[in-house]
Design a protein that fits this description.
about 375 residues, alpha/beta, 7-stranded mixed β-sheet, 14 helices, 11 strands, about 45% helix, about 15% strand
Length: about 375
C-alpha cells in the first residue's frame, strides 16, 4: 500500500519517508531563544532520534534478510565473508555488524579470528520453529508503518486485505508440542470446553487465520472435527497448507467466507472466536451467527489480548500505537475481558464467565437451552 502525503509548504505530493530537497532560510527569533525552550527542543530531538534508531534496526534486518546475510550468519562467519555475500566493502560490512552487535542480533564467536553468528533468540526467530519468522514480523511491521503514515489522510479506506496475511502469520503458531502445551494450559481452566473438544466437538473456529489455536486443538484431540471460517483468500491458502503439513486436513473443513454469512444452525458444541481481528461493524452480527450455529448449551470462548499493564513511557507508547493501527484496520483497540463479557451478554449468551489462565484471561459464554 503506497500512501502519498501532501507537503503543505509547496502543495506537492510526497511518498512517506521522503523529504523536500530545498529548505527555507531559518530566521532567528529572539523571543523564542529562551534557554529553557532550547533545552526542551534538544530533549525532543534526542527522543525522536531514539525512536528512529529502532526503526532503522528493523529496516537493516529486513535488508539483511533479503540480501542473504541472515542466512550466512546462522553459522560463524567473518566480516569479509559478509562483504562478499552482499557485494559491499569490508568497511561497510563491519559497520553493519557493529549495529547488529549493539542491538543484540549477533554475538562474537570465540576463535583465532573475529567471527560472528546470530544470537540464540534471533537464530530461532530466523528459522521460525514456532511458525513466526523474522521475515513475517518485518512484513507486519512495515504494514503497520504504512497504516500509521496514512492516519492523517482524510477518507482513507479500510483495506483489510492489504496486510491480512502478514498479521495472521505473526499471530499463528505452528501446532508443535510447545504450542499444544500452551493451549492445554488454557483448556485446563475451562474443563467443560476441553471435554467437548476431546469428545470430537464439532468445533467452529471463527476467524481462523493461519490456524494457531485451531490446528493445535486438532492435533491435541484426535477425535476432534472442526470448521474454520476465514475471509482472506491468501490466509485460507496458508491455513490449508499448514493443516496438510500437520496431518489434520481430513478432519478440517475450511470455508473462505465472511463469518457474518454463516448459516449453520444448531451444529457445533463449541466455538472459538478470534475476536481481536473483527471490525466494529461486524462484531454483533458475527456473534449472532455464532450463537445460531451452536447447539443449545454450546460454548463460545474468546481471549483477552490486552498486554500486562506497565506504566512506563514505552508501554504507553506501544499501546497507543497499537490502538491507532487497529483503528486504521477498522477494528477496536484491544478489549479487556470485562468488555468482552458484556459483548457476549449483549449477544444473547448466558452464564458468561471470566476465567484467568496462564496465557491470559478468557471469557466463556453459553447458548441458552
Amino acid at each position: 500500500m503506497r500512501n502519498e502525503l501532501a507537503d503543505r509548504s509547496t502543495g506537492r505530493r510526497m511518498v512517506p519517508g521522503t523529504w523536500p530537497r530545498e529548505r527555507t532560510g531559518l530566521l532567528v527569533n529572539e523571543e523564542s531563544s529562551d534557554p529553557a525552550a532550547v533545552q526542551a527542543a534538544l530533549v525532543a530531538r534526542a527522543r525522536l532520534r531514539q525512536w528512529m534508531a529502532g526503526a532503522q534496526v528493523v529496516d537493516l534486518l529486513h535488508a539483511a534478510s533479503v540480501e542473504g546475510w541472515l542466512h550466512t550468519l546462522t553459522g560463524p562467519t567473518t566480516v569479509e565473508a559478509l562483504a562478499e555475500t552482499g557485494g559491499v566493502t569490508a568497511e561497510r560490512a563491519r559497520r553493519v555488524v557493529e549495529v547488529f552487535l549493539a542491538a543484540g542480533v549477533v554475538r562474537v564467536v570465540d576463535g583465532p579470528s573475529p567471527a560472528f553468528v546470530l544470537t540464540a533468540e534471533f537464530a530461532a526467530l530466523n528459522v521460525g520453529p514456532s511458525g513466526v519468522r523474522l521475515d513475517d514480523l518485518v512484513d507486519e511491521m512495515g504494514a503497520a508503518r504504512d497504516r500509521v503514515r496514512s492516519a492523517l489522510l482524510p477518507n482513507t479506506p479500510y483495506t483489510w486485505e492489504y496486510d491480512a496475511l502478514a498479521v495472521a502469520r505473526t499471530r499463528g503458531l505452528l501446532p508443535t508440542a510447545a504450542a499444544r502445551a500452551m493451549f492445554a494450559l488454557a483448556h485446563e481452566m475451562v474443563p467443560e470446553y476441553r471435554s467437548r473438544l476431546a469428545a470430537g466437538g464439532p468445533l467452529l473456529d471463527v476467524g481462523s487465520g493461519v490456524g494457531g489455536a485451531l490446528l493445535a486443538a486438532l492435533t491435541a484431540f484426535p477425535e476432534l472435527r472442526a470448521v474454520g471460517i476465514e475471509r482472506a483468500g491468501d490466509v485460507v491458502e496458508e491455513l490449508w497448507k499448514r493443516a496438510q503439513a500437520a496431518g489434520v486436513s481430513s478432519r478440517l473443513e475450511i470455508r473462505h467466507a465472511d463469518a457474518q454469512d454463516l448459516d449453520d444452525e444448531g451444529v457445533y458444541t463449541v466455538s472459538y472466536w478470534a475476536q481481536a481481528f473483527f471490525p466494529r461493524d461486524a462484531r454483533a452480527t458475527t456473534l449472532a451467527a455464532v450463537r445460531r450455529a451452536l447447539v443449545p448449551g454450546g460454548l463460545v470462548l474468546v481471549q483477552e489480548l490486552v498486554p500486562q499493564s506497565q506504566n512506563t513511557l514505552d508501554s504507553r507508547l506501544r499501546a497507543a500505537l497499537e490502538a491507532l493501527v487497529a483503528d486504521s484496520r477498522g477494528v477496536p483497540p484491544a478489549l479487556v475481558a470485562e468488555e468482552l463479557a458484556t459483548e457476549l451478554r449483549d449477544g444473547g449468551f448466558v452464564d458468561v464467565q471470566v476465567v484467568v489462565s496462564p496465557i491470559g484471561r478468557l471469557v466463556v459464554g453459553r447458548r441458552g437451552e
